[in-house]
C-alpha cells in the first residue's frame, strides 16, 4: 500500500552500502562481506586482520594500531565516496521514486492492486541502483581480500612450522608492509570505481 511504501523504504543513507566484515583464522583474514542496511555502525563494516601466532602484548598492541589505521583509511575513503554518490545521484533517484509513488497514490480511480503495482514500479530504478553499488563494493572487497590473503600465504610459506620469536617479529612486520601496500593500491582505485558507478547510474536514471 502507499502507507507501507512510505514507511518501509529506508534509502537515504549512503552508509547502507558499507561493508560488513568478519574475522577469521590466519595471519590476516577477511570474513564474509555483505553490504547491510545502516543499522550497524561503520566500524562493524570494515575488513579485519587477525594474527595467527601468539606474540608479546606489546607486539599485539603495535599490530592492533596498524590494523586500526588501515581500517580507518578504508572506512574514511569509502564513506567519502559513498557520500558524494549519495548527494549527487542516489538522492535524486530517491526523490524521483517518491514523486512517482505519490502520483500513483493520487489515483483515486484505480484499484488498490493497480496502485500497489504502480508504486512498486516506481521503486525499481532505485533498487537497481542499490544492487549495482552493492555489487561493485562486494567486488572491491573481494579484490582487497585476495590481495591480503596472498600476503598471508607468502608469509606463512616463509615462516615454516616452528618460527622463533625473532622470526615471528620479522615476518609479522613483512606481512604488515605487504598488507599496507594492498590497502594503498585499493584505496587508490576507489575514485575511479565510484566515478564509473556514477556514470552508470546517471545513464540509467536519464534513460
From TrEMBL:
GO terms for cellular component: cytoplasm. It comes from Anopheles minimus. It holds the Pfam family DUF842. Belongs to the FAM136 family. This is Protein FAM136A.
Amino acid at each position: 500500500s502507499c502507507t507501507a511504501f512510505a514507511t518501509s523504504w529506508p534509502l537515504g543513507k549512503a552508509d547502507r552500502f558499507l561493508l560488513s566484515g568478519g574475522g577469521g583464522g590466519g595471519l590476516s583474514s577477511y570474513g564474509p562481506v555483505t553490504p547491510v542496511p545502516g543499522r550497524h555502525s561503520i566500524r562493524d563494516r570494515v575488513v579485519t586482520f587477525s594474527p595467527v601466532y601468539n606474540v608479546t602484548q606489546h607486539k599485539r598492541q603495535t599490530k592492533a594500531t596498524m590494523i586500526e589505521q588501515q581500517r580507518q583509511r578504508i572506512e574514511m575513503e569509502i564513506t567519502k565516496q559513498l557520500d558524494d554518490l549519495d548527494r549527487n545521484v542516489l538522492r535524486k533517484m530517491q526523490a524521483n521514486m517518491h514523486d512517482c509513488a505519490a502520483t500513483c497514490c493520487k489515483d483515486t480511480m484505480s484499484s488498490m492492486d493497480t496502485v500497489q503495482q504502480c508504486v512498486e514500479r516506481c521503486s525499481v530504478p532505485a533498487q537497481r541502483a542499490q544492487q549495482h553499488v552493492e555489487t561493485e563494493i562486494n567486488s572491491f572487497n573481494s579484490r582487497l581480500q585476495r590481495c591480503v590473503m596472498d600476503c598471508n600465504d607468502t608469509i606463512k610459506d616463509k615462516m615454516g612450522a616452528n618460527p622463533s620469536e625473532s622470526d615471528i617479529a620479522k615476518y609479522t612486520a613483512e606481512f604488515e608492509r605487504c598488507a599496507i601496500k594492498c590497502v594503498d593500491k585499493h584505496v587508490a582505485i576507489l575514485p575511479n570505481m565510484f566515478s564509473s558507478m556514477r556514470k552508470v547510474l546517471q545513464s540509467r536514471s536519464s534513460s
